[in-house]
Amino acid sequence: WPRTRSLNAPSPVQQFGPCGRIMKNSAMVMQIQDPASQRLTWYKPPLAVLVIKKVRDSTVLSPFVQLVEWLIQEKHMVVWVESAVLDDPLLIQDKKFQNIKDKCVTFKDGRDDLTDRIDFIICLGGDGTLLYASLLFQQSVPPVMAFHLGSLGFLTPFQFQNFQDQVTNVLEGHAALTLRSRLRCIIVRKNYKDHKNDSDRNDLAECDSSGVNSINNSNALPSTNILVLNEVVIDRGPSPYLSNIDLFLDGRHITSVQGDGLIVSSPSGSTAYALAAGASMVHPSVPAIMITPICPHSLSFRPIVVPAGVELKISISPDSRNTSWVSFDGRNRQELLHGDSLRVTTSIYPVPSICSQDQISDWFDSLAECLHWNVRKRQKCLD
Amino acid sequence: WPRTRSLNAPSPVQQFGPCGRIMKNSAMVMQIQDPASQRLTWYKPPLAVLVIKKVRDSTVLSPFVQLVEWLIQEKHMVVWVESAVLDDPLLIQDKKFQNIKDKCVTFKDGRDDLTDRIDFIICLGGDGTLLYASLLFQQSVPPVMAFHLGSLGFLTPFQFQNFQDQVTNVLEGHAALTLRSRLRCIIVRKNYKDHKNDSDRNDLAECDSSGVNSINNSNALPSTNILVLNEVVIDRGPSPYLSNIDLFLDGRHITSVQGDGLIVSSPSGSTAYALAAGASMVHPSVPAIMITPICPHSLSFRPIVVPAGVELKISISPDSRNTSWVSFDGRNRQELLHGDSLRVTTSIYPVPSICSQDQISDWFDSLAECLHWNVRKRQKCLD
Amino acid sequence: WPRTRSLNAPSPVQQFGPCGRIMKNSAMVMQIQDPASQRLTWYKPPLAVLVIKKVRDSTVLSPFVQLVEWLIQEKHMVVWVESAVLDDPLLIQDKKFQNIKDKCVTFKDGRDDLTDRIDFIICLGGDGTLLYASLLFQQSVPPVMAFHLGSLGFLTPFQFQNFQDQVTNVLEGHAALTLRSRLRCIIVRKNYKDHKNDSDRNDLAECDSSGVNSINNSNALPSTNILVLNEVVIDRGPSPYLSNIDLFLDGRHITSVQGDGLIVSSPSGSTAYALAAGASMVHPSVPAIMITPICPHSLSFRPIVVPAGVELKISISPDSRNTSWVSFDGRNRQELLHGDSLRVTTSIYPVPSICSQDQISDWFDSLAECLHWNVRKRQKCLD
Amino acid sequence: WPRTRSLNAPSPVQQFGPCGRIMKNSAMVMQIQDPASQRLTWYKPPLAVLVIKKVRDSTVLSPFVQLVEWLIQEKHMVVWVESAVLDDPLLIQDKKFQNIKDKCVTFKDGRDDLTDRIDFIICLGGDGTLLYASLLFQQSVPPVMAFHLGSLGFLTPFQFQNFQDQVTNVLEGHAALTLRSRLRCIIVRKNYKDHKNDSDRNDLAECDSSGVNSINNSNALPSTNILVLNEVVIDRGPSPYLSNIDLFLDGRHITSVQGDGLIVSSPSGSTAYALAAGASMVHPSVPAIMITPICPHSLSFRPIVVPAGVELKISISPDSRNTSWVSFDGRNRQELLHGDSLRVTTSIYPVPSICSQDQISDWFDSLAECLHWNVRKRQKCLD
Q1: Nearest 5°: phi and psi at D296?
Q2: Residue bearing the bigger pLDDT, D89 or D52
Q3: What domains sit in chain B, N to C, each tagged with a CATH number?
Q4: How many CB atoms lie within 10 A of CB D73?
Q5: Chain C partners of A371 at a C-beta cutoff of 8 Å?
Q6: A52 with A107: CB under 8 angstroms?
Q7: How far is CA B184 from each of CA B201, B203, B236, B346, C305, rounded to the nearest angstrom?
Q8: B336 CA to chain C: closest CA distance, Å?
Q9: pLDDT (tens digit, 9 = 90+) per residue, A222-278?
Q10: Highest mean pLDDT among A46-55, A209-218, B151-160
Q11: Taking CB atoms and an 8 Å cutoff, what residues of chain C touch D371?
Q12: Residues 6 or more apart in contact with residue D271 via CB below 8 angstroms
């Protein structure tokens, strides 16, 4: 356990000169364990392991087969696989896989509910596999161990080589964890509200079991309730015209966005699309939400970083000619109409992402390898 | 008390699927009261009030006299003023001030110790007055109420008009507070270390009473130990050549900086010099440290935001031709030599800055008024 | 004629020390009249004037009627109007317009050819009206005088108030001109080429009379040949996945773009969409082409400015999963398929845009008014 | 001669519709040979060659000796070397160099005038050697061939390996040239003007023979007249306070700069300091001047690119508390006082920089190798 340092700042002294004090408000006190000390432990031995592999990438097949075989035969775990994965023709032809295929438990994405059935997740491939894991588990997420195949990813810190030792180490409970905060996004539909009155109120509570979409029993669009790991994006969609979007924070109108769109991202998402749009990079253990405009038509619209506890609301400006489109970690794209609103808060269900080394080293290694962050030859050019 | 919302995110659920848990580590747990609920209360009625006014700005004189007179005559407080302020020829000519001048307590900056003598601070003028207050109080800072005269400042949210009601309101204990985190900066001198061996160890503890500079009892440069509210800047100084600076985080070498310099700032500082160097803007209640290069000679050196609990170390690269210069909130400029190092952590002594409205409204009002953040005419130009 | 200064740099001395010389190459010499000295003159008095008004903006109606009436009755000019304009119900109800309506000549956009019929163009409204004028005239463009109604535009420098004096002044030949360079864009279709063999070769010459689209006599997509005033944009369209675009300059592969897309713009376009994507602003008389990525997934993809004489080629990378979409000044959106290529060069047909003052003053006034470029209160905030 | 393409755009058609024309103004016409066709030729065989080597870099010694020996013994040229170079102790110890040392002609920088004595310049080392060559020749510059040792530089395109073939090729007159425009900078001193009345008028003409500094025959500061290849920088110098600088273009007040300073650069300089300050990169054959703020205190102060023919004037704002400092290609740092002004125009004396391949290929190779411009692994990270 190499690092015992703290990532939280020390508690501030709460006396300000001889007389000033903070007024105590016990209702607003929370206990926080330092992120640097977060380690995974197992309440009981994990048995059911979900293996997610990158699609349409033949280089993942062999590692996938090796891993599944080893988990079943050596670790005696129950391996879950999305059923479409087994339909891959290349996999079907793989002789080694024939022997273990029938031992895998399959499920159908969008039909079968995985809640409480999976103890552990292993991802093979790019950052997309982790986004998919996040999508599958819209409430509590089992611990995720993510292997990259090829170059290091922001969300995939493990090398596949000697995977046996590394998985064994994690199963024995010796792993540092990054709790990657997710954003809870709710689209409140104007018309749906009208139709259904107040019956969809509980969409606003975070514990509904229905997952991504509520039932649609009227001809209006239903509410959408979805957790994102990286970002929710509001953009102009196929329209050639600019969107006008109003942004509210805790009920206050903050600004209006004119441009290609707006990105609301978690710290994990600050190194994804927000980065391309010009954001600073935020370490995943900083409790914050990042707001970044996409190609804004104002020279002064710099990205901002706000505390993780705020509630954002986004809606189409009343005087906007156009509607907008919303997408969640790059999926579930849908139109946001006049009168609809998108609410965003930090979810209580983070993705527990297992570190290869520790939170700090994993992050800076990703910056260097994925983004070439300030990596260069000692600059002979500019002397 | 208009806002009861939270700025901290809700505590994450600490079960990850049926088996995964966070390993409890009670030594690493801290209690945090939500920043949105921070309000000032008085343990006993404040009596000694320090009034800081902007220097060399004649428009501040009349408000200064009005305020001091009112504090003495109506509020029966003891008003402290830096002695140099009273030497201002314009103030000496002010007849109204003649009557109250003798009732002010004076002190000499750099000679008299104010610790435990001041209950309350009122600033009149620009953001510089608050930086000066921060400099004066290198440990616990009395509550600060800051008036702008003219345009709103990031650190000066109050309008002077009807100051009487506003000060009274604060004295009665009804004010929201922003605890502005400060950075504790220590320069560890190579030669000084050699000279003094380990006797300056306690420089590293935050409780030494000596303030800005340790005693200098050898011919080597002493250590410097100083708290900054906005930022510590390392730059090439008068040298035409680029500095090469090594940056370490929790002992790990993170990157080398080639360029004009580096800014390490608190969230409050993200809207000061770091902003000019291209940083995103970070709300003061996000517990973070911002690292921003100044004119870096790498296209890929984007600013980063790291958790407030880390320890940064900055030193001259061994192969650098040049030394660097360090300055603290724009003051105390000094050379950083080969072998010296600058350590930066978040201090336990924030500046308790009294809000005019609340943390969120004050910040966004400053963004709009000070920075014209995304403020514009409805864009007829770009349609 | 206030300015007699030069915008072209003086000719460089072509002797380099006692022996070095430039090798003369008379085939590559061109004569350039200094942009600062460009003034409009009339070979014969202009008679036919095309009036373009902003659509869907009721505030333009009254100025439109005033202007048309004055041109017909006072100036005895023949006023051309797009026929759809006359269908506007608000205009039909306008009594004053009833009297002059029948005196207007109408044409149908996309059906009637205006070549050699229009002597002079007046635009009323936003920058969009000038983009539309550019679209209508795909070869030589008559001189354009553009009025803004409301706030100044980059392309619309004239105030409508006292339009009579200003138009008269221009008709008398006293106006400074900005020749706004346009980009000639050709999409060469892979399949179309296969179908038609070499018969569409002459698409590559700039003098075909057909305007925007070549004839489509096969089931493959035809070539597109279009001049843009601001920019041609290649983006990922409705696809959630990133495009991979290859960029060639004079036949050399320069870079591959991974991100939301790429903007190739004229200097006029540097203050339009390219600006929102982070480009520097380029004065319209700098002979250059600007290349700006849209949300690139590389920290180091800074915009570049290349000489106006180069030929650019853009195509989908062979290994890209996705196609891209191309749009021209925000219009004519179409898919770019694998094997297709987009060629971009500077056209010989600029838009002769009449200055309100002169090239320099008009541009800086637009920067200040449209973009608030470095406009601010004397900074009390950041002192 | 591989490229016969053009870098200048084709001449625009100068008829605008049936009636509009450009008014001819023969006084303002200039002839421009296309930059892509610029090749070096020799009026008579070059005999005197100046060799400039990077200082304080021992890796340059051996190539320097090889080159000088070869030029003298094989090419029978007269080699000029700055006298300080021969004082280098390492060079003195080099046995091989002993034999040729006496055959070198030496001169003293700042004392001996090189005008009309040097036919050809060879630089060995970094970009700094070319900046030094530019400084030495303040009027016509002999053709410069620049070798990098180690990584490619923006100004040093040649590899040293097989230098014999490459130099021979250039001496035979087969080389493409980039004419790198320089900026002519004049500081007009307020007090000097007062002292000297109009006698320094001819400082404003570009042909005075005195080089960098005019004679100083009074106790006021003299005018400075200097050509820069990369940039002239105005900054706050050692002052902790921001400068307020006024910027004028062709006599018109354009904007006021508040921040760390301002960079006025040639296109060559757009990839030097201006790049670090956020400018777009401009190809050296675009006739333009780039204006880039350094850490401006306005969110909206984006860099701009203006035509090469303008005249810029920079002075301290009358209400600025501070003066500023000016430096020229990183040298000759001096204070700019209240009332002084700095004038900048494009010089008629470019630096004729010999291409390794051609203007386009050399530039894009430098972008990739020096700046890693958009260079990255095919992005597995961000999928």
Answers
A1: -75, 150
A2: D52
A3: 48-181+351-371 (3.40.50.10330), 183-346 (2.60.200.30)
A4: 12
A5: 299
A6: no
A7: 15, 11, 22, 6, 44
A8: 26
A9: 678 999 999 999 999 888 777 799 999 999 999 999 999 999 999 999 999 999 999
A10: A46-55
A11: 300
A12: D154, D281, D366, D367, D370, D371
CB B32 within 8 A of CB A11: yes
pLDDT tens-digit map of A60-71: 999 999 999 999
From chain C, pick out residues whose CB is under 8 angstroms from the CB of B380: 126, 148, 150-151, 153
- In the three-class reduction of DSSP (H, G, I as helix; E, B as strand; rest coil), residue D257 is classed as strand
Contact C145, C52 (CB under 8 A): no
- Give the three-state DSSP class for D229: coil
Residue A183 · residue A135 · CB < 8 Å: no
- In chain D, % of residues over pLDDT 90: 67
Are B236 and B261 in contact by the 8 Å Cβ rule? The answer is yes
Asked whether the predicted pLDDT for residue B220 surpasses 60, the reply is no
- What mean pLDDT is predicted for residues D89-96? 87
Per DSSP bridges, beta strands D144-148 and D158-159 are: parallel
Average pLDDT for A340-362: 96
* Distance in Å, alpha carbon of C70 to nearest chain B alpha carbon: 26
How far apart are alpha carbons B178 and C32 in whole angstroms? Answer: 63
Nearest to C371 among A278, A299, A327 (CB): A299
Question: What is the distance between the alpha carbons of residues C291 and C344, in angstroms, rounded to a whole number?
Answer: 11
- Cβ atoms of residues D105 and D73 within 8 Å: no
Of A153, A300, A381, the CB nearest to D381: A153
Single out the catalytic residue among B88, B119, B127, B329.
B127
- CA atoms of A335 and A325, how far apart (whole Å): 4
Nearest to A355 by CA among A161, A198, A170, A185: A170
Show which residues on chain B lie within 8 Å of chain C, measured between beta carbons. 126-128, 148, 150-154, 272, 298-300, 302, 366, 369-372, 375-377, 379-383
Q: Which residues pair with C304 in a beta bridge?
A: C291, D281
- List chain A residues with CB under 8 Å of C331: 240
Q: Are D49 and D119 in contact (CB under 8 A)?
A: yes
Burial of B60-87, coded b for 16+ CB within 10 Å and e otherwise, reads: bbebbbebbbbbbeebebbbbbbeebee
Cβ neighbour number for residue B106 with a 10 Å cutoff = 15
Find the range with the poorest average confidence among A378-382, D329-333, D374-378. A378-382
Using the beta-carbon criterion (under 8 Å), do D383 and A151 form an inter-chain contact? Answer: no
Residue B216 has φ and ψ, to the nearest 5°, of -110, 90
Looking at CA atoms only, how far is residue D375 from chain B in angstroms? 11
**Polymer length of chain C:** 383
Place of tokens 């601010």: C376
Secondary element (H or E) of residue D135 = helix D127-136
The pLDDT value recorded for residue D380 is 42
Q: To which H or E segment does residue B172 belong?
A: none
Query: What are the residues facing A222 on neighbouring strands?
Result: none
pLDDT of residue A199 exceeding 50, the answer is no
- Residue A72, amino acid: I
**Contact call for residues D171 and D348 (beta carbons, < 8 A):** no
H-helix or E-strand spanning residue A73: helix A61-73
The interface pTM score, or ipTM, of the predicted complex is 0.92
Strand, coil or helix: D141: coil
**Do C283 and C268 form a contact (C-beta atoms < 8 A)?**
no
Cα separation values, D151 from B300, C253, D123, D156, D359, Å: 19, 21, 14, 9, 18
**Using the beta-carbon criterion (under 8 Å), do D331 and B240 form an inter-chain contact?**
yes
Neighbours of C93 (CB within 10 A): 10
Half-sphere exposure of C282 (CA within 13 A, CB side): 36
Return the C-alpha torsion angle A178, A183, A184, A190, nearest 10: -170
Helix, coil or strand: residue A235: strand
